[in-house]
Amino acid sequence: MKKLPLAQLGPRESAPGVVNFGVLLPWVSATGGNRLFVKIIHTHDQFIQAVQPLAFELQHRVDADYGDFWSVMVDFNAAHDPQPGSRFGSPGRYVYRFELHNPHAGVLDWIIDPFAREYAIGKLSAFTLGYTPYIWGPAEADWKTPALRDLIIYELNLAEFGGSLQGAIDRLDYLADLGVNALSVMPVSNVALEVDWGYLPLGYFGVDERFGRRDDFQRCVDAAHQRGLAVIVDAVYGHTGEDFPYADLYRRLQYRENPFMGPFAKDYFGVSTDFNRTLTRDFFYSVNLHWLETYHIDGFRYDCVPNYWDGPVGAGYANLVFHTYQYVKNAITSLARFDAPEGPRLIQIAEQLEAPEQILEQSYSNATWQNASFGAAGACAHSAAGAVENLGQRLGAFGYIEQATQNGETLLKAPLQYIENHDHSRFLCEFGLRQRDRNPLFAEGDRAHWYRLQPYLIALLAAKGIPMLWQGQEFGENYFLPEDGFGRVLLLRPLRWDYFYDTAGKSLVALTRKLVNLRKDCAELRYGNHYFHNDYARYLSRGLLLFQRETAAALSLVAVNFTDVEQRVPFVFTRAGNYREQLHGQDNFVTGEGQERWLTIPSNYGCIWRGS
What we know:
The chain is of the alpha+beta class and 612 residues long. The chain has 13 helices and 32 strands. The protein is elongated.
């Protein structure tokens, strides 16, 4: 893979008031009778009936690597708009689109620029005349991406979490105080709708206008880093929205083949991208580098990996994450935030739910989503047979490698652990729903059962792997989410921050803070060995889950009780020591190696005994 010539693509202001436009349109040539225009209008004028956009014709040449290339220079100092009241030529934000005149298909208007750096409402690209690059804060030079084993991730949807980038910035202090150290941000790339999860992108090289401008996101990343929070962005590369320019234009041209889109691996959702095409591979590789360099992000969460997973030596996913890693490794001087003794700390998380163990073994991904723990927790909430045992194994990351050596390089590996994420209803819904107007779309989990979340939070934040919280989970957000239909993605579910103040919210937030900080303080909870006490008669049959995390220096015993009854059970400690209970501190003791003690585990709660 190689980086596209981005200095020649999209709109770039080469001198004050002079903007160069460039776009790659393979198989669309001037010799075939095509003519391409860019239509530009100042945003102040775009809804004024008397002012229409000005059109400028692009010239054609052939790029040696990618084929047909179109470009034009527009001098806003000289190109005057005769229309009365027009702001054309004034500094500020402009919207634009391409229009292709084809001898067979006619005039094809409303073509988005695939290399735009800014976006506007609907199918419009944008740029700012007189744009001033963002100046990063002085602390950015010292920022270091956290080590993989230290990650505690908080997933969020900007529109729901804070309403905008500024709203998210305003709550970064809250997240830092909560104790998490990495934000996994749902897609911020350009989409067609104002309310949308963002998984059908139209533009990849910038931030969608519904969230703000590019400098708004840079300011958000800067502010997050200042508070010790890494930023991971959701990357959707296996499929696009139908109006993505390389899908839309060639469909309207009625070409039998497409230089960018097409069947590849699995074809879930949207219009599939074809990684057998050089342009496709280099495009998404260039998107990665652009976000690393321009926005200073710390990594990627790759959506729907089955759409472009064609094996460990294929052209698709494995190829992309390998080359992205190698780029960071070779550019470590300029990307110093990733520099570490164990190797580059670039975060690359796969959403490969079909084979998560395989993706860690066979690619340069260092983390993966996996729904096994999520599913086991749900089964446990419904008292399914064998569910506690299954959950115990899943929380121990059973079947996942901890590191892999590829091409002489050793990468640390870990699965994500979660019981909530954006794809599913809140875990509270497992304990009963409340209906509103008998419409299942607006059902909610019954917050009267908030206390039943506690043992799951304790087990999750002490588990092996990388724990992830979904926005508002820490104060008992209770939205129901349909399994399919437009009600999943086209309904805004803003966080009910008032939950933070009620009894349930205050109790859950306090527990979450305690657990997160305990994990940060105790090395064994982050990367220690995991031993699941799989004793059916003593523990599992009684709805109890016990596991221990240990290093040479310390041991923590985690015991959770999923039942409504306080329970007292025997336990044999394998290591002598002074054990102090970390959650309520009321059951401390000294024990010898091999000595049996009776432990009291509160109902719908748990204990963590730490010995040293």
